[in-house]
Amino acid sequence: MTETRTAFRTCPLCEAGCGLEISVEIAKKGDRTEERVTRIRGDMNDVFSHGYICPKGSTLKQLHDDPDRLRRPLVKRNGVHVEVSWPEAWDEVAGRLGEIIERHGRESVAAYLGNPGAHNVGALLYNRTFLQGLGSRRRFSASTVDQMPKQVACGYVFGSGATIPVPDLDHTDYLLMLGANPYASNGSLCTAPDFPGRLEAIRARGGRVVVVDPRRSRTAEEADLWVPIRPGADAYFLMSIVQVLFAETLVRLPEHIADLVNGVDDVREAASAFAPEVTSAVTGLEPDLVRRVARELAAAPSAAVYGRIGTTTTEFGTTTSWLVEVVNALTGNLDRRGGAMFTTPAVGSPSTRGKPGVGAGFRIGRGGGKTVVRGYPEVMGEYPVAALAEEITEAGDERIRALVTVAGNPVLSTPHSQQLDAALDALDFMVSVDIYLNETTRHADVILPPPSQLQREHYDVALLSFAVRNVANYSDAVLALDDDQPDEWEILCKLALIAQGLGPDADPSLADEAQIDALVRSAIADPTSPIHGRDADEIRAQLDRHRGPTRQLDFMLQTGPYGAAFGANPNGASIDHLRANPHGVDYGPLQTRLPDALRTKSGRVELAPAELLADVARMHAHLDEFTRRDLVLVGRRHLRSNNSWMHNIDVLVKGKPRCTLHVHPDDAARLGVREGSVARITSRVGSVDAVVEITDGIRPGVVSLPHGWGHGQPGTRLRVAAERAGVNSNVLTDHQAIDPLSGTSVLNGIPVTVVPV
To answer: Is 713 helix (H, G, I), strand (E, B) or coil?
Structure first.
């Protein structure tokens, strides 16, 4: 006997947040009921995505059914991973992790949090629980090979690293994009289902789209203008834009914040030495082109500047991110319709909580924490991942002896990969929370697999904070957990309790109860909270119908900007309200939010933070060094690829090999490489061999390899990925090349040589 039901959920595979309509077949076999997904397509009624779906979204079924996906814990015995029961796995973790903490202290243990956690409500809400239980400051994540410069820059300017403006795509007349390829990535730090369609709509209503990128990406091909900049030179390009705006009297601050902006004269002075003629040798751009873009930005009825990973993973990633906001402000487009605006997320954010318009401000190096070997300071609670390997192997008695990774593959995704690969072998103990036995988790002594994406509830806690429209969409799990399978939040809570010495039988609900209790009591005591002064037992009585992430989400929604406030606003946001609206709830377009969204100490927009102005001297010092570079490497992205962990899905990786070295025809002739031949790419720290693909879609002097490949290492279980292994571009990235303001690695603009093999 079979029947079919339909489930609606948000896709968790990238930042676009598209709605999915999932058909589930229910088969009754005696006393058992089995469910399987039969079809996934776009949800035509989703309030945000309106039916749009990319090739990745339809593969959640294949990901769930992947025979290589781990269903049971693995423990390494005699060098081989073997499947064990959950109690056996927890015994192993408690015994060995507890011994290391007891003998060497908590700072001998480190944690690494991977990119998939940003798309997973369990990890987003309970990684903090795990980290607090671990009690170590040695925390690393994918943020320092991704978006950290943007958070640092916005932290200094607006007061919080989570207060990041996004381009108002649906209303802008002019969009300038740097280092972004949303036709492949669907956008990042800018949640916008069907980002390509929104770009096409800008042009359809008479607007313009300009793309600044060393590659003529698919996005650049569809733009009105491609600006083929030299890699890593975005800060110089933007500083020249600023210089032109001042020199030609084109500066016009938004009227409603003109009296709220500090540092305009300091910015003018900093930019004065960066006229387009001065920076042309660095950017590779004609001065007239730079002046044209500056004038168009200033003349457009509305405009927005948007920079992403191609700008953040450079030597001047934080300075570039700062200058994006400087240009938005100086052209009159900060916090106004069609410009760069702030989201009002339904679950709240640092810019919606506390006293409006003022806060503690932003700083790095809190508590004096630094890495042992090179002394890198703390940034937003973590250290640069480029320093992880040396903290394991070179820190002497203070070295990292145990490591816990959560949903990451840093052996493929972080700098000088061979160095980190070797360092992981030097650990005394390693635990990984992951669905795969991959290039990183093969080093783990214990692997604890969470459920598949279809077996978890979902809410984009982080990503909807950067959405181009104020929306909310909650999804219950589509499929039930397997027998004896703990949810991801339970795994993280149990790790926290074990690290606290409560042993392998500790009940994860203890940590969950402590966390929700702390949230409720903090909100009741906060005069700015909508439940200030309420009875804690009354609030808990309403919350305790749920547990885990659902309970926390209910609390966040009810106390958020549109919240039900536990009865005070009966039609407001809550889990029940979102469940009653499975296609999502639309709270409308972005609204003007300054000055209330500010959390700076001054209560003003700090357009010229001292930390950023100081970095201008470094820009001056690098002018000549940039011009001496002969050949540099950049990365690239493909629509069917999501970092490294989607490469085991055949439907996404089949077809023409994509892990090739893009070379301009002029460079190919100069270097002696031919189409389809193999070339050796060498940097300061390593070499890889890759098949050459000659294309005029990249500027001369630049070559490109995609990120996230290099599969097939011994001890992994990724059959499909191993068949299309590719090469690991991060063998070439230099662990010593770091943006000093954010600790972020330089992954673009790496000096290399290329020779035929």
So the answer is: coil
